Prior knowledge:
By secondary structure, the chain is an alpha+beta fold. Helices cover 40% and strands 22% of the residues. It contains 4 helices and 5 strands. A 5-stranded antiparallel sheet has the order 1-2-3-4-5. Helix 1 crosses helix 3 and helix 3 (41-60) crosses helix 4.
Amino acid sequence: xxxxxxxxxRDADIEAELLAGRxxxxxxxxxxEESFLPYNEVAWRRSIDLVKRLATRLTALHxxxxxxxDMLPADRGSVDIEWETSGRELLVNxxxxxxxxxxxxxxxxxxxxxxxxxxxxxxxxxLVHWLxxxxxxx
Length: 138
């Protein structure tokens, strides 16, 4: 059984794991010279902050994420967050423009289950409930 970490330790663990994956992320971004702009540092930070907020919400529900999502370079300097959990697959695209909300697309066992924007705290709460299977937003 995994013990609950303090919020500070959880955030530090999340950031350390995501930063460890940054080298792979940078290699992927550099390998596609046509369709991708170099990833944007603002989009990277926004992505890390979003993952931390979602992990905080999961912890509040007494659910600890088994694995952190993959973070991949996407078009126009944005970052894709890919998260798989409990038969659900989620893709969140975090734009490099801080004025634009992240978009999301999620499937449950191959069926479209959620699509939209993460513009508010309530959107993030609904997403966490969907990820844990506590809400069906289809």
